Amino acid sequence: MYTTILVPLDGSKRAERILLHVENLALAFDAKIIFLQVVESGLSYIGPYTYYTEAELEQHETKQLIENAETYLGSLQGEFRDKGIQSRFLVAEGSIVKTIITVAERENVELIAMASHGRTGLARVFYGSVAAGVLHQVDRPLLIIRSEDEE
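The structure corresponding to this sequence follows.
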């Protein structure tokens, strides 16, 4: 029986393919949902006409990414609330795989549910896999659905 389910999302339609499964589980088990989006810091683009220092630009971009994530996850939370499912959301900064595992442990979730690109071979080597990273490091049940390549 699951009472709390962690749902890591990145804002893509591909990642959202897990939501119907999560909705069904939440209704069946009267489980609470925690939506999570991880913002990786340290990624920034400096255009040819900017006057920001790299640190200022990174801070500004990270703040914008966090605000966008809060808006996105807040909207999902509202949709689930309208269906009678208790949910909340978290936005965290850091390494995606490590942060998912840390949040799962801290929030004592019984299940992590997520979509995967389903890449194999060289594509998996070059692009990595969040789902595979979580699978190999997590100590609790993990529901992964393969999602077609979209967005």
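Residues 4-146 form a domain with the Rossmann fold fold (CATH 3.40.50.620).
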